[in-house]
Amino acid sequence: MTVIAIDGPAGAGKSTVAKLVAQQTGLPYLDTGAMYRCVALAVLNAGVKIDDEHAVGKIAQDVTIELIDDKAILNGVDVSSDIRNPEINSVVSVIAAHSTVRQAMRSQQQKWIHSMAGGVVEGRDIGTVVFPNAECKIFLTASPEVRAQRRVDQSGGDVQQVASSIAERDRIDSTRSDSPLKPSADAHIVDSSTMTTEQVVACIVNIFKTFGEDADG
Question: Crossing angle, helix 53-62 and helix 32-46, to 10 degrees?
Answer without folding.
Answer: 120
